[in-house]
Design brief:
Elements lengths: L3 H18 L6 H21 L9 E5 L6 H11 L5 E7 L1 H4 L16 H7 L5 E7 L2 H4 L2 H9 L2 E6 L2 H8 L3 H11 L3 E4 L8 E7 L5 E5 L4 E7 L8 H9 L7 E5 L3 E6 L2 E6 L3 E5 L29 E5 L4 E3 L4 E3 L3 H9 L9
Parallel strand pairs: 1-5, 2-3, 2-4, 4-5, 6-8, 8-9
Antiparallel strand pairs: 1-10, 6-7, 9-12, 10-11, 11-14, 12-13, 14-15
Helix pairs in contact: 7-9
InterPro entries: Class_I_gatase-like
């Protein structure tokens, strides 16, 4: 006759011995428990952060001069369908080179790359508006149309001219109102630089200076050398010398797309995005360099303790906590199933 009580004792003893015999790889238990602890800390930090970085609306930055398909798809998803209006703004020098659409007009300009990009995805109502100067940007009727458009695409040629055309105008205010209504603002290179709070430009004596941007991305600092792409060292030095604890440096590779919504900035497209966190940055480096090794007056200052995040497609950055985030398992699996591994890098 089977003794069930004895069988239970044997099973309990075997289970206990099996559990005691399990040996985890070195450091695995610490990583597993640390991940859970970090997840709890992240949730608490996000809850304590208060209102989101971008209160409403979506900003899509493009590292190329055209609107990539990832940016168009992101705009369609944010709007929630294809039945919406798109207005393409061409500011400054770029507007002066587009005679087919007069200043302040609303032509279709089928040859425009931005127009073709959206029409390729079945968006029928796409219009182009040229803004060659401040007078066109003060058009109140145009500003009203921009505030109501579900998607606005900003293009520009020379940065200084475009910034002078837009800064403080009715169009500038309308772009902020459009975001306040939950709409989408897309900006291609180099117009995406205009949306920052501060633009770092060449200064006297080989140095740099910072000028105000449109501040549609508050706290963001970008490097905007005229007519050329900065070297990595020049970029980081320019950003590092003008970062304060509340600022975040940002640079998009050509082909990269950055979607900013709420607290999250997600990288899409075919390039990476560099974020420079200035919370611990110093240009004196007293804790690193002895006093005798400090650069003499007049030399470019060093940049010490600059924290960098180089994020590839699929990854995100929490703009409040400055914490990088990996792709969710669901989005990574969906991307792999669709044949797109960019959202889940090896």
């Amino acid at each position: 006759m089977l003794n069930l009580e004895r069988l239970s004792d044997i099973t309990h003893e075997l289970s206990s011995n099996l559990i005691r015999s399990i040996v985890l790889p070195r450091g695995l238990w610490r990583r597993l428990t640390g991940h859970a602890r970090r997840s709890r800390d992240a949730a608490a930090a996000d809850a304590a952060a208060g209102e989101p970085y971008l209160r409403s609306g979506t900003v899509i930055l493009c590292g190329s001069e055209e609107v990539p398909h990832d940016a168009v798809i992101a705009a369609i998803h944010r709007v929630g369908g294809r039945d919406f209006r798109v207005i393409v703004l061409r500011a400054g020098e770029l507007a002066e080179k587009s005679p087919e659409a007069p200043a302040g007009s609303h032509g279709s300009q089928a040859g425009s790359p931005a127009v073709r990009a959206f029409r390729k995805y079945g968006i029928p109502e796409v219009h182009t508006v040229n803004l060659p100067g401040r007078a066109a940007a003060e058009d109140s009727a145009l500003a009203a149309r921009l505030a109501e458009a579900e998607v606005v695409v900003l293009e520009a040629g020379e940065i200084a001219g475009a910034l002078d055309t837009l800064m403080g105008t009715a169009v500038h205010r309308a772009l902020g109102e459009a975001l306040g209504r939950g709409h989408v603002l897309v900006a291609t290179r180099p117009a995406h630089l205009l949306l920052a709070e501060r633009l770092v430009i060449p200064g006297a004596g080989g140095g740099t200076s910072a000028v105000p941007g449109l501040s549609l991305l508050p706290g963001v600092v970008v490097h905007a050398p005229p007519g050329r792409q900065p070297s990595p060292a020049g970029l980081l030095h320019a950003l590092g010398t003008h970062l304060s604890p509340q600022h975040l440096g940002m640079e998009l590779d050509p082909g990269a797309v950055l979607v900013v919504r709420g607290n999250e900035a997600q990288v899409l497209g075919d390039g990476a995005v560099t974020f420079a966190d200035g919370r611990e940055t110093s240009t004196t480096c007293d804790e690193v360099l002895p006093t005798r090794d400090q650069p003499p007056p007049g030399d470019l200052p060093p940049v010490c303790s600059l924290r960098l995040h180089l994020l590839v497609p699929g990854y995100s950055l929490n703009l409040r906590t400055r914490r990088p985030m990996a792709p969710s398992r669901e989005s990574a699996q969906a991307a792999v199933a669709a044949g797109d591994r960019s959202a889940f890098p090896a």
